Amino acid sequence: ATPKTPIIKALNMFVDHHISALPICDADGRVINIYAKFDVINLAAEKTYNDLDITIEQALQHKTQESWFEGVVTCKKNDTLEVVIEKIVKAEVHRLIVVDDEQRMFGVVSLSDILNYLILKPFGDFVSKKS
């Protein structure tokens, strides 16, 4: 998403892609922020806005200084699983934005991705070997 993406479109992306956060990228593809489902729930609970046509940029302006923000934490696509897990644990975040050498977004790796890899992949390999 970009800062100009409407909130309604962000909500649709959350649902359509089964994701919990959207990296917000500038015109060069560099991640500048993250908009999460938590932000939507928080703003709705505070009745901060009623207009779903406002942009993510406008919605993020409603965040207070006290609001919890996990920040944008990145990793490189060649980082090992150990490095990725260490970064997630140290930063206490739910996801890392995968960037290239110019800090442009390449993808996202989440806690769910890691758990699926560690738990489901070995099980899938075991099942396929038994068949």
UniProtKB/TrEMBL annotation:
<comment type="subunit">
    <text>AMPK is a heterotrimer of an alpha catalytic subunit (PRKAA1 or PRKAA2), a beta (PRKAB1 or PRKAB2) and a gamma non-catalytic subunits (PRKAG1, PRKAG2 or PRKAG3). Interacts with FNIP1 and FNIP2.</text>
</comment>
<keyword id="KW-0677">Repeat</keyword>
<keyword id="KW-0129">CBS domain</keyword>
<dbReference type="GO" id="GO:0005737">
    <property type="term" value="C:cytoplasm"/>
</dbReference>
<dbReference type="GO" id="GO:0005634">
    <property type="term" value="C:nucleus"/>
</dbReference>
<dbReference type="InterPro" id="IPR000644">
    <property type="entry name" value="CBS_dom"/>
</dbReference>
<feature type="domain" description="CBS">
    <location>
        <begin position="68"/>
        <end position="126"/>
    </location>
</feature>
<protein>
    <recommendedName>
        <fullName>CBS domain-containing protein</fullName>
    </recommendedName>
</protein>
<dbReference type="GO" id="GO:0019901">
    <property type="term" value="F:protein kinase binding"/>
</dbReference>
<dbReference type="InterPro" id="IPR046342">
    <property type="entry name" value="CBS_dom_sf"/>
</dbReference>
<dbReference type="GO" id="GO:0031588">
    <property type="term" value="C:nucleotide-activated protein kinase complex"/>
</dbReference>
<dbReference type="GO" id="GO:0016208">
    <property type="term" value="F:AMP binding"/>
</dbReference>
<feature type="domain" description="CBS">
    <location>
        <begin position="1"/>
        <end position="52"/>
    </location>
</feature>
<comment type="similarity">
    <text>Belongs to the 5'-AMP-activated protein kinase gamma subunit family.</text>
</comment>
<dbReference type="Pfam" id="PF00571">
    <property type="entry name" value="CBS"/>
</dbReference>
<dbReference type="InterPro" id="IPR050511">
    <property type="entry name" value="AMPK_gamma/SDS23_families"/>
</dbReference>
<dbReference type="GO" id="GO:0019887">
    <property type="term" value="F:protein kinase regulator activity"/>
</dbReference>
